[in-house]
Amino acid sequence: MDKNGARMLAAPALADETVVPLPTVSKVLKLLSRAGLLLSSRGVNGGYSLARAPNEISVADIIGAIEGPLSLTACVDDGDTVCEHTAMCGMSGNWDRVNRKVLAVLESIDLTEMAPKPADFMSSIPIASANHGANKATA
User: Fold this and answer.
1) CATH number for the domain that contains residue 43
2) How are beta strands 38-41 and 47-50 bridged, if at all?
3) Under a CB-based contact definition with an 8 Å cutoff, are residues 86 and 35 in contact?
4) pLDDT tens sequence across 102-118
5) In 15, 42, 62, 105, which residue has its Cα 20 to 30 A from 30's Cα atom?
6) In the predicted model, is pLDDT for residue 130 greater than 60?
7) Is 139 among the domain residues?
8) CA–CA separation, 67 vs 107, rounded Å?
9) Are 23 and 70 contained in the same domain?
10) In this structure, are residues 79 and 73 in contact, taking their beta carbons and an 8 Å threshold?
């Protein structure tokens, strides 16, 4: 637990829980920490915890932390690169509009909406049949 009572989760435990390779988990955790979405604590009881309430972290925040600024094409207003065809392209203004709409949707979805629902999670766990481990009939 961190100083606020939140659950701390170490990278190896998270890798085991999600079945994602530890180097990938470590990289993602560092990116999310650098973006201020996670708090990290070193030591025996250290690990990572959310820096804000889950309903205050949007999908756009997470994607932005991992991938950088969101833009569908190089020609959108907020893009860092300039497309060589911008001067003769009639679509550039339309792509900017699409990019703003996509970003607005990603900003409107928070982490609580992305978390698996208990019923969904439980239904994905295989349940052993009543005959599991029973002796097979011999021929």
Assistant:
1) 1.10.10
2) antiparallel
3) no
4) 999 999 999 999 987 76
5) 105
6) no
7) no
8) 15
9) no
10) yes
For residue 47, which amino acid is it? G
CA 100 to the chain's CA centroid: 20
23 domain-assigned: yes
Looking at the DSSP bridge assignments, the partners of residue 49 are: 39
Burial class (CB in 10 A: 0-12, 13-18, 19+), 75: buried
pLDDT of 5 > 60? The answer is no
3-class secondary structure, 111: helix
Question: Where in 21-82 does DSSP place strands (E)?
Answer: 38-41, 47-50
Whether 108 and 97 have beta carbons less than 8 Å apart is answered as no
- In a domain? residue 102: yes
Radius of gyration of the chain (CA): 22
Query: What is the total residue count of the chain?
Result: 139
Q: What is the DSSP letter of 123?
A: H
Is 122 within a domain? no
Its pTM stands at 0.70
Count CB-CB contacts under 10 A for residue 7. Answer: 10
Per the structure, the complete domain to which residue 99 belongs is given by 54-117
* CA 60 to each of CA 51, 65, 70, 94, 100: distance values in angstroms, whole numbers, following the listed order: 16, 8, 8, 21, 12
Question: By C-alpha distance, which of 37, 38, 56, 51 is closest to 4?
Answer: 51
